[in-house]
Design brief:
768 residues, alpha+beta, 3-stranded antiparallel beta sheet
Length: 768
């Protein structure tokens, strides 16, 4: 009875102290606004209920012991029948049994519910709490340390009494008060950190306090369930369900050592714990652990910075960009866990792969060898990793396949790129993002997908879409890698990850392996198409060369007449200014597009080693055609910028006249080609006709003189010439006598001959 009374008195003192400590921490919470102080208040408030329950047990046990003593006295001075009647009337013992059987488990459930609810309240408060400066942290630290120290002393006193069987309930209060003392130490550390400018410690300590309360609640529920099914043997001590075993381990760590010693003795079969070595080790264990801790703390204060490294120092988990170690050598910092150092290899070149998936199965990895080197064809699956698919755009002019059907707007290609980078800002790379390396790979993959979605496989894009990436599998592979590098650099600069992209190179660019046959058919069709195009180009060059002697001269001649015809067809700027402006803009756009095509062709000629001025001489090259385009564009822009309609009309008329004369001059100055041949023949015919007519005119003047000298003779001569022209190839005879006095004799068998005179009968075959 005396022991129970002493336990009751200790419970009363503990209840008073627990209430006082709770009130003090409530004042600290209201004064400072600390989250850890709030969590400590809810934890200490739970201890008040525990002390009330322990007080109730000791008080009931005291009454039960007093009742038992009275019954013993009555039994000593009474008959056996009176003692049996008294033994049956024990209300205090029945009350104690009721409390131990029903009240204690009920209290355990209610106490577990309290801890669980308060843990949830603390977590919700932490989630909704806004960052506000803490008030009076120094005073709060002082109060937390003071009551924490007092609670620690009283917890040790209660734990010591709880080792005795008669005061066993004090073991639960001692462990719980020790948990409260630890929480008060955390509150003091949080307040001290806020005082020094590290307010984030308060949040994390409060989170730990909420987790501790939730763990206690879960353990109490488990104890309640196990207590229901635990067998109860007569004379065996029963442990209260509200007595936390976890807190008991914290309060009595020596019990763990005794348990381990018993286990070692059992395993070896003799009292190992009684040997001199074990006792020496036990005596020196704490100093050795302390020395080891000091050595570890000293080692944690040394930082060795190697060449090409940079260390960021974090104080209480907060990194500081300015507190970094860059110079190689040995440096010192505050010991762990106050300050920690994280190393970054800023001089190292990092690399990651884009387009590489999971590891491929060994049975599909195929490759050939050539002169000891491993070769892999894209027509077969190969490589140690699966190659990912990317979508590429198909130009509108390439969407009709070899069968004449419309193909899809996209195609699939296997791409693999190697990205190399180095760290330029260790603080941003290490602490701005949770995983900067993963973030870099993700944004690089995103840019690669976006880039490929607008690229083409091997077909150039003409017209307004020339800024899009094209022919990524052929000649555009290098520009595509450079453009992708630029896009990744822009994204990295925007995100400010703290890295520099060194290079981006395509290691794998090919269609899927199962598309090999179809791809080869497409390539074959395109080669045939190229062959036909080259034949057409050769025929065009032949035709142009036949017309004007060489292609540039023909293009200049055609351009001159085209310019003249377009200007003649242009609407009047006075009568129809809207159509005039539209026509001017359209011609400027058309000529600029043609000029761009000529520039690209000139670049290709230079790339092939051809000279810009061909062998035909200056003025007969593609550059001269480009100059004509630029001159015409300049004239059109001058006409477009003319605001005075009358002046524009005159300027248009002048351009029409000048271009017409220039076209005719260029046509007439041709020295080679069919046109020049026709011009030369026409000129020759003109001179022949002119000289012939000029000779006839001069001959007529001379014949006039002959006629005046002898008109009859001249007429006879003209008359004879006329018969010569009329009867060409016929025999004619001229007789200078009166026809009526001439008798004609013909010798039909005579030979014909050329008459040499009027009376040569033998020669003429005639007689008189």
């Amino acid at each position: 009875m005396i022991a129970q009374k002493r336990g009751k008195n200790v419970a009363v003192v503990g209840l008073i102290l627990q209430t006082a400590f709770t009130a003090v921490m409530l004042a600290v919470w209201l004064m400072t606004g600390s989250l850890t102080a709030m969590a400590t208040v809810w934890l200490l408030t739970g201890g008040i209920g525990l002390w009330v329950m322990v007080l109730l047990l000791f008080y009931t046990r005291q009454l039960e012991r007093r009742e038992a003593a009275e019954l013993e006295e009555i039994a000593a001075g009474s008959s056996i029948f009176q003692s049996e009647e008294a033994a049956q009337n024990q209300p205090m013992a029945a009350r104690l049994a009721f409390i131990e059987r029903w009240t204690t488990p009920t209290f355990t459930l209610l106490w577990a519910a309290w801890h669980g609810c308060m843990a949830v309240v603390i977590w919700r408060t932490l989630g909704a709490e806004t960052k506000t400066p803490m008030q009076y942290p120094s005073q709060g630290t002082l109060f937390a340390l003071l009551i924490g120290f007092l609670m620690f002393l009283f917890s040790r006193y209660s734990t010591g009494m709880g080792t005795q069987k008669q005061w066993r309930p004090l073991r639960a209060t001692g462990g719980y008060m020790l948990a409260g003392a630890i929480m008060l130490a955390g509150a003091a550390a949080a307040l001290l950190g806020a005082w020094q400018g590290y307010g984030q410690i308060d949040y994390w300590v409060a989170t730990v306090g909420a987790a501790l309360m939730m763990i206690i609640a879960i353990e109490l529920v488990i104890n309640f369930v196990l207590d229901i099914f635990r067998p109860r043997l007569p004379g065996q001590e029963q442990r209260m369900s509200f007595d936390s075993r976890l807190l008991g381990l914290i309060a009595e760590p020596d019990r763990v050592g005794h348990s381990l010693a018993d286990a070692v003795n059992y395993q070896f079969g003799f009292e190992v714990s009684r040997t001199w070595f074990y006792r020496l080790l036990v005596k020196s264990f704490i100093p050795l652990v302390g020395l080891g801790a000091l050595v570890l703390i000293a080692i944690s204060s040394i930082v060795i910075v190697h060449e090409g490294q940079e260390h960021i120092i974090s104080r209480f988990g907060r990194p500081d960009a300015e507190n970094s170690l860059k110079e190689p050598g040995i440096h010192f910092k505050l010991p762990w866990p106050i300050e920690t150092a994280r190393a970054f290899d800023v001089g190292r070149l990092y690399e990651f792969q884009l387009g590489a998936g999971h590891e491929a199965e060994p049975d599909i990895i195929t490759a050939g060898t050539f002169k000891g080197r491993e070769l892999a064809l894209w027509t077969e699956e190969h490589g140690s990793h699966e190659e990912q698919d990317f979508l590429l755009a198909v130009p509108p002019e390439s969407r009709e396949n070899i069968t004449g059907n419309k193909a899809a707007d996209v195609t699939i290609i296997k791409l693999g790129a190697s990205v190399q980078y180095k760290i330029t800002d260790a603080y941003k790379f290490g602490y701005k993002y949770a995983d900067a390396e993963e973030m870099l790979e993700v944004v690089a993959s995103r840019e690669m997908v976006r880039y490929c979605s607008s690229a083409t496989l091997d077909t150039p894009i003409r017209g307004d879409a020339q800024d899009r990436p094209e022919a990524i599998m052929t000649y555009g592979r290098g520009p595509a890698a450079r453009r992708l590098k630029t896009r990744i650099e822009e994204t990295v600069k925007e995100l400010d990850i703290g890295v520099q992209i060194v290079s981006v190179a395509f290691a794998i660019v090919h269609p899927p392996a199962d598309a090999a046959q179809s791809f080869e058919k497409v390539i074959e069709a395109r080669l045939r198409q190229d062959q036909q195009r080259y034949q057409a180009q050769a025929q065009a060059v032949t035709t142009l060369s036949g017309v004007a002697g060489n292609r540039p001269s023909a293009l200049r001649l055609a351009l001159a007449f085209s310019i003249h015809d377009k200007l003649k067809e242009m609407p009047s700027p006075i009568k129809n200014p809207a159509k005039f402006a539209e026509a001017i803009a359209q011609q400027i756009k058309t000529n600029e597009a043609q000029a761009d095509e000529l520039r690209e062709e000139i670049k290709q000629d230079v790339f092939r080693g051809r000279k810009t001025q061909e062998s035909t001489g200056a003025g007969n090259s593609l550059q001269s055609v480009l100059d004509d385009h630029q001159t015409h564009i300049k004239n059109l822009k001058g006409l477009q910028n003319e605001t005075d309609k009358t002046k524009a009309e005159k300027l248009l008329a002048k351009l029409v006249s000048d271009t017409g004369q220039a076209a005719e001059t260029r046509l007439m100055n041709l020295k080679t080609g069919r046109a020049s041949v026709m011009i030369a023949e026409a000129s020759s015919q003109r001179w022949r006709h002119e000289l012939s007519e000029r000779g006839k005119a001069e001959s007529f003047a001379r014949q006039t003189l002959l006629y005046e000298a002898s008109p009859q003779m001249y007429m006879l001569d003209r008359w004879l010439d006329t018969w010569d022209q009329v009867l060409k190839g016929k025999h004619k005879r001229v007789i200078g006598l009166d026809p009526n006095r001439v008798e004609h004799w013909f010798r039909w068998e005579g030979k014909s001959g050329v008459s040499s005179g009027l009376y040569d009968g033998a020669s003429n075959g005639t007689g008189q």
